[in-house]
Amino acid sequence: MKFFIDTANLEQIKEAQALGILDGVTTNPSLMAKEGINGETNVKQHYVDICNIVDGDVSAEVIATDFEGMVKEGEALAALHEQIVVKIPMIKDGVKALKYFSDKGIKTNCTLVFSAGQALLAAKAGATYVSPFIGRLDDVSTDGLNLISEIRLIYDNYNFETEILAASVRHTMHVIDCAKIGADVMTGPLSSITGLLNHPLTDIGLAKFLEDHKKNA
Ligand code: E4P
Fold first, then answer.
1. Confidence of residue 217 (pLDDT cuts 50, 70, 90)
2. Which of 23, 35, 86, 205 has the most C-beta neighbours closer than 10 Å?
3. How many CB atoms are closer than 10 A to CB 55?
4. Range 2-216 classified under CATH 3.20.20.70
């Protein structure tokens, strides 16, 4: 399972990269705004900065919602760096744009996916990644993990190559459950990754080992 971090914060990306287990980064317009990154030039430079930190795919989202606009923006984003993956919303023109980029060999991430039908369309259009938002489904009392299971079944039935990128991951149990189901990738905050480290028995055991070692010193 690949681990992506879902942030535009360079320090957090550096911290995850330094762990040695980071496979990529996802961003979205809200995450960019949270870091105070605005204006086309600054946004583009920020994507390049992220690419220079991480060794893997970096999703950069288009703002346009019409086919021509998405193609123009997506091509400009893809030209920024070889690690850029063009992030396209799951709307009608978005499906057309996914097919366009797929035919051109440009990687895509289909975002804002909330149903198995949408995921099927994204795969048919040749998306590199499909991003079902599990946390946001949980927020409205709908089982986000069940959607991951449904998409896994459908993709396996037809050997679709689109990778399931479990998005809107909120905590460590989401990560573990997605791994059990067989999501190809998860993207979440740094805490959902570093939280996997924690176990009180590890801390207690290590303290005891160090204490016993001192006795023999
Ligand atoms: C995915 O690519 C999105 O950036 C993200 O996972 C959204 O997560 P949120 O629901 O925590 O905003």
1. confident
2. 86
3. 11
4. yes
